[in-house]
């Protein structure tokens, strides 16, 4: 590897760099001097010379030289005007002013106006160095422009895919549900009106058909909920104590029925969307209640400060998750149990993952089968924490 | 007011029309149901044009949104800007739960918006409520 690099460098030193230069110069002797200097500096130059502003503009419209070398004083016009023409033609070509002695102020002014460099005629040996640097800078600019174009393309692509998703959500909310509703309603009607006249098997089939249609309805609803996560979000500073409290209120029935105890204390202030974070805690605590073992559920919500984020934990004493399933639980419609054991569609944790990721955090679970589970996720710490401290310090 | 109210049911789905008729047939209001399958025919019915020259002016329009040719929102826009028709109450009754459909329907002057419930029992209650509210409690213009 290093040998190859060394050879490459040697090759570059020996072979000349090709360079197309456009000289803006009214003095032929000076042009000769410049070209000789470039050859001496390791360039294999192909050059053209223009003298007037009109010629210069015409040349720019038909060719793309690597570099423009313009005399500062050109009898009827000035190299600075060449800069102006370059700009109005919208060309990004390095322009180096070459001239007899002028003051430092003028040199600075030229650079300000957009000249790449300023080289004095009695120090022409500096010209090759100056050109090499100009070419490197031009390439960097080009690469950045390409990267920016690529980024803009990606952003547009993302926006389009978001629009598609929204369209999909709408299609799901209407076009999918309409026929589904028909199946469910008429199967139900069949069951209600004709159950007495049918035999046991027929009633069983109707029951299965109805159950399938009703489950499909909840699946479509869940998919919709999932696809809507992240739209219309509003970021505010939230006391996560209050967020957990709201989640618990929504879970009141399940809490009472299971006799669950939930511990949480001194949770931090975070930045996020209230509705979504309530949903996040509600899904996690709801799961902790649902997947309880023989004992009544005991659930602990806590938070630990890592560098610029808070790591939350929702831990339970439930049935736990076997090591090989720890990843799968976050995949939409993935379920580890039959519906008879635990009802549900397998959307809750997928929604949690989406919410956490939309907030710039990560989510994972630590668990062993039979030993409870700890769902952990991170949320960005509220920058106001730091600001608050500064204010206090100043007051003190 | 006439003895039996007239309802114009604008819906292209025969299954939903069937369910709605089931409910209304069993009710005490004995509503007359007139069904048209799309927005164009709904407008023709209301303006007594084409084959509807003898059509009766309905007391209530129950309007689906997604229909071929002319959709429900176009019907809403047309009826609610027509001084001769705008007093007829319009209930939007559709599968869509979409926020933009709900908002836009009210903007266009819908008198209420009901999403068709997926469950048969809830569907029946919804249709019963529509009839009970508009013909049991509400005073309608003559």
Could you give a short description of this structure?
Chain A: Keywords: Coiled coil, Kinase, Phosphoprotein, Transferase. The complex is a heterodimer of chains A (396) and B (142). Chain A is an alpha/beta fold and 396 residues long.
Please tag this protein with its features.
heterodimer, A: 396 residues, alpha/beta, Rossmann fold, Heat Shock Protein 90, 3 domains, 5-stranded parallel sheet, 5-stranded mixed sheet, 12 helices, 14 strands, 53% helix, elongated, disordered C terminus, B: 142 residues, 5 helices, 39% helix, 16% strand, globular
What does this structure look like?
- The complex is a heterodimer of chains A (396) and B (142).
- Chain A is an alpha/beta fold.
- Chain A has twelve helices and 14 strands.
- In chain A, the strands form four sheets. A five-stranded parallel sheet of chain A has the order 2-1-3-6-7, with helices on both faces. In chain A, strands 9-11-12-14-13 form a five-stranded mixed sheet.
- In chain A, helix 8 (240-250) crosses helix 10 (274-290).
- The longest helix of chain A has 68 residues, at 127-194.
- With 142 residues, chain B is an alpha/beta fold.
- Chain B has helices at residues 14-25, 39-46, 72-80, 99-107, 120-137; strands spanning 6-10, 32-36, 60-63, 90-94, 112-115.
- In chain B, strands 2-1-3-4-5 form a five-stranded parallel sheet, with helices on both faces.
- In chain B, strand 3 (60-63), helix 3 and strand 4 form a beta-alpha-beta unit.
- In chain B, helix 1 (14-25) packs across helix 5 (120-137) and helix 2 (39-46) packs parallel to helix 3 (72-80).
- Classes of the chains: A alpha/beta (396), B alpha/beta (142).
- At the A-B interface, helix 6 of A face helix 1 and helix 5 of B.
């Amino acid at each position: 590897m290093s040998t190859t690099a060394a050879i490459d460098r040697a090759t570059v030193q020996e072979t000349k760099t090709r360079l197309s230069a456009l000289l803006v110069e009214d003095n032929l002797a000076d042009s000769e001097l410049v070209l000789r200097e470039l050859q001496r500096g390791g360039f294999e130059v192909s050059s053209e010379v223009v003298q007037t502003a009109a010629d210069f503009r015409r040349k720019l419209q038909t060719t793309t030289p690597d570099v423009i070398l313009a005399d500062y004083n050109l009898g009827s016009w000035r190299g600075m005007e060449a800069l102006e023409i370059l700009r109005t033609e919208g060309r990004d070509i390095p322009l180096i002013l070459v001239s007899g002695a002028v003051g430092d102020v003028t040199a600075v002014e030229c650079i300000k106006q957009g000249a790449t460099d300023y080289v004095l005629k009695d120090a022409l040996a500096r010209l090759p160095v100056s050109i090499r640097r100009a070419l490197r800078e031009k390439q960097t600019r080009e690469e950045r422009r390409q990267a920016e174009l690529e980024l803009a393309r990606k952003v547009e692509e993302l926006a389009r895919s978001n629009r598609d998703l929204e369209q999909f959500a709408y299609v799901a909310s209407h076009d999918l549900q309409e026929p589904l509703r028909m199946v469910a309603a008429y199967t139900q009607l069949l069951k209600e009106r004709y159950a007495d006249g049918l035999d046991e098997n027929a009633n069983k089939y109707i029951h299965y058909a109805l159950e399938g249609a009703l489950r499909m309805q909840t699946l479509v609803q869940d998919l919709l909920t999932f696809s809507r996560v992240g739209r219309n979000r509003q970021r505010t500073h939230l006391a996560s104590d209050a967020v957990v409290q709201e989640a618990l209120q929504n879970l009141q029935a399940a809490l009472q029925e299971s006799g669950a105890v939930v511990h949480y204390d001194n949770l931090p202030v975070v930045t996020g969307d209230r509705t979504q974070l309530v949903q996040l805690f509600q899904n996690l605590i709801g799961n902790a209640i649902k997947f309880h073992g023989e004992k009544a559920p005991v659930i602990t919500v806590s938070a630990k400060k890592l560098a610029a984020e808070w790591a939350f934990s929702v831990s339970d004493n439930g049935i736990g998750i076997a090591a090989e399933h720890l990843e799968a639980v976050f995949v939409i419609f993935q379920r580890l149990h039959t519906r008879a054991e635990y009802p549900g569609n397998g959307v809750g944790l997928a929604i949690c993952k989406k919410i956490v990721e939309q907030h710039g955090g990560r989510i994972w679970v630590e668990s062993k089968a039979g030993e409870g589970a700890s769902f952990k996720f991170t949320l960005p710490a509220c920058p106001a924490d730091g600001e608050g401290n500064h204010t206090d310090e100043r007051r003190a | 007011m006439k003895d039996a109210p007239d309802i114009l049911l604008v819906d292209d789905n025969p299954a939903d029309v069937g369910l709605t008729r089931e409910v209304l047939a069993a009710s005490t209001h004995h509503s007359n149901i007139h069904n048209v399958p799309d927005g164009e025919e709904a407008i023709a019915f209301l303006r007594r044009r084409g084959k509807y020259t003898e059509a009766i002016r309905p007391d209530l329009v129950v309007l689906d949104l997604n229909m071929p040719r002319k959709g429900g929102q176009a019907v809403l826009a047309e009826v609610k800007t027509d001084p001769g028709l705008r007093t007829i109450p319009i209930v939007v009754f559709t599968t869509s739960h979409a926020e933009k459909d709900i908002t836009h329907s009210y903007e266009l002057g819908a008198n209420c918006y009901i999403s068709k419930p997926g469950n048969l029992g809830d569907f029946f209650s919804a249709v019963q409520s529509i009839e009970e509210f508009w013909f049991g409690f509400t005073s309608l213009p003559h």
